[in-house]
Amino acid sequence: MKPAEAVCVADNLERVQARIQAAQRRAGRTDEVTLVAVTKTVPAERIAEAYRVGIRHFGENRVQEFEAKRPQLTLPEAVWHLVGHLQSNKAKRVTELFSCLDSLDSLHLAKKVSAAAAVAGRRVPVLIQVDLGQEPTKFGVSLAELPALVEQVAALEGLSLRGLMTIPPYLPPEQVRPFFRRLRELGEEQARRQIRGAEMAELSMGMSHDFEVAIEEGATQVRLGTALFGERPQR
What we know:
The protein is an alpha/beta fold. It contains nine helices and eight strands. The chain has a single domain (4-229), classed as Alpha-Beta Barrel (TIM Barrel).
């Protein structure tokens, strides 16, 4: 993969869209898959380039990093996703900076974001992050805790629960397939409960190395950084 500064986002986007469509055909799907361009470490001018070629959904990992970029980005149709872990002391900032929170992982955090959203007069769309790989470096609610958290989040007036998200272990695509399948099953289980306020229509799963398998297993959102922008610079 070329370094980020040498990559043409338009060319990569065309290739990625073709791969998304091929994965949908293999799965017999005709519904829409949302491409979320993950812009961690990507400068504002590259984000604007991606917007110019048609990308509308962008995912950031850290509140502080996006806070520094945001004043340089006048992109009226952009949808800003927070896809990284959110510390509860930044709950107010997420309601001011982001369109949605895709990494909700606790009731404590949910209450903080809901309260901040209510003060701002809005409802924040959220996805619950599920810990399927049980890796110590990753966040997410456990399988045992998920049903109760769905009920609790759905009852909060400042949040709009849209579905689930996961970050599985970094493995070859076919080895990750069971994690994606399990998230789809969990989403279906929660949808069958018909909890008021829990829409459960979204599954955010799949990144640059495994998004085609994720789509085959039901992803409605894929989060792609390297596939669009090239390799991130090494620290």
